Amino acid sequence: MSLHRIPVVLIGFGNASRRLAELLLERSAIIEEKYHSEIVCTAISTSKHGSIASDEPIDLGKALEAVRQGKKLSSLPGTVPVNDAFEAIEQSRAEIMIETTPLNIKNGEPAISHIKRAFDLGIHVVTANKGPVAFAARDLRLKAEAGKLCFLFESTVMDGMPIFNLVERALPLVEVKSIHGIINSTTNYILTAMEKGNSYEAALTEAQACGVAEADPSLDVEGWDAAVKASVLANSLMNADISPDMVSREGITSIKAEALRVALKKGSKIRLVARIEKRDGKIIARVAPEEIPADDLLYVIDAYSNALILETDLMGTIAMVEQHPNLTQTAYGLLGDLLSIIWVLFR
Ligand SMILES: NC(=O)c1ccc[n+]([C@@H]2O[C@H](COP(=O)([O-])OP(=O)(O)OC[C@H]3O[C@@H](n4cnc5c(N)ncnc54)[C@H](OP(=O)(O)O)[C@@H]3O)[C@@H](O)[C@H]2O)c1
User: Fold this and answer.
1) 100 lines ligand 1 (CB under 6 A)
2) Is 229 one of the annotated active-site residues of the chain?
3) pLDDT computed for residue 324 by the predictor
4) Which residue of 48, 196, 266, 315 shows the fewest CB atoms closer than 10 Å?
5) Residues of the chain with pLDDT under 70
6) Are 3 and 36 in contact (CB under 8 A)?
7) pLDDT confidence of residue 326
8) 129 CB within 6 A, ligand 1
9) Which one from 130, 143, 229, 269 is the annotated catalytic residue?
10) Is 83 close to ligand 1, i.e. is its CB under 6 Å away?
11) What is the rounded distance in angstroms from the CA atom of residue 71 to the CA atom of residue 17?
């Protein structure tokens, strides 16, 4: 059987996207066998490493090597430099765009504009960037629907954990009444490390070193990342139309090691918890440190682990736990979305 060649454009080639590139290289044979498809990259855009497009598939192994060596992507043979992400999208002739630029907490840009440009050109979109779904979910969904295009974002909240797939595909008609959980790995890691006697600063440095912390870690410790994720969850699973500034927010910067030790002595733990509820028909979302008793499902969620608990009408309480996620899970979330689109396109 002949292979479908699927051109993709990578907007952002940082931690998540580079791990995706590795997975695409590692798994190409099984993707060809199971999906009868060859995924080829025809354009890449970054901030400091330049942006390129190519008529021929870009060698992702060489692209990874160039970035590792601090070289410009335009050093890759057969590629032409382009000015920016928009030009990369336009020149890519891609079927699917993978958007992994950093989160912009103010308004979700320029990722929202990247995605709109892709939809205008008939390109399906996969993103790990929470900003677009937190600030423009409804708008982007309508644009995707109008163009009969896919807009998938499984990696935005709990890396590769299939939250959105679960609710959309496996729970038809089920209404999500409320959501709560621990959804920020960096703060959970810092609080767990401080309980063990480590300093706040050392724990944050470790979270940054392994690529889990946001590029700007104040987004994690001040609760912004969790607030943005709460918006994504509310907008996607509870049909809300809120933005992160509508989420009441308190971070972990004022929590002292002493408070964590006192809680532990009482048999509880302090963790940053996100809650989304419907009150009088209105969606209320908040992020704040909470004292979690030992009999709570969230009590065992330590270090980088995350957990999300959905209260539903027909399926009661559903809990999802992600133990010690790393970049592979984030990249897998992107790969899973990519393969879902390929499955829809060529089934
Ligand atoms: N890392 C995780 O574990 C994780 C988990 C879930 C979700 N996410 C989300 O996924 C996204 C990517 O995360 P990451 O860890 O891969 O971030 P990252 O390592 O900081 O990579 C971001 C990439 O975007 C590029 N970039 C920045 N501005 C750009 C622009 N205007 N046009 C084109 N490229 C631009 C950067 O270029 P340079 O390479 O030149 O700097 C870099 O390649 C973020 O939105 C993050 O919140 C990450």
Assistant:
1) yes
2) yes
3) 86
4) 48
5) none
6) yes
7) 86
8) yes
9) 229
10) no
11) 17
Tokens 């479908």 sit at which residue? Answer: 4
* Beta sheet of 248-249, edge-to-edge order: 248-249, 282-293, 268-279, 176-182, 306-312, 317-322
What amino acid occupies position 217?
P
Q: How far apart are CA 347 and CA 226, in angstroms?
A: 36
* Among 66, 74, 25, residue whose Cα is nearest residue 50: 74
Q: How far apart are CA 301 and CA 286, in angstroms?
A: 19
How far away, in angstroms, is 127 Cα from ligand 1 center?
A: 10
Q: Tens digits of per-residue pLDDT, 15-63?
A: 999 999 999 999 999 999 999 999 999 999 999 999 999 999 999 999 9
For residues 61 and 65, give the distance between their C-alpha atoms in angstroms, rounded to a whole number. 6
> 103 CA to middle of ligand 1, Å?
8
Of 89, 7, 19, nearest in space to 52 by CA: 89
Q: Is 325 in the pocket of ligand 1 (CB under 6 A)?
A: no
* 201: three-class secondary structure by DSSP: helix
The answer to whether 135 and 107 are in contact (CB under 8 A) is yes
pLDDT of residue 49: 96
Mutating to test ligand 1, I would choose from 9, 10, 15 the residue with most ligand atoms within 8 A of its C-beta, which is: 15
Determine which residue's CA is closest to atom 19 belonging to ligand 1. Answer: 14
Count the Cβ atoms, other than its own, within 10 Å of residue 232. 25
Strand, helix or coil for residue 333 = helix
Question: pLDDT digits over 146-170, tens only?
Answer: 999 999 999 999 998 999 999 999 9
Per-residue pLDDT, 205: 92
- Interval 89-106: pLDDT, tens: 999 999 999 999 999 999
Give, using CA atoms, the residue closest to atom 3 of ligand 1.
212
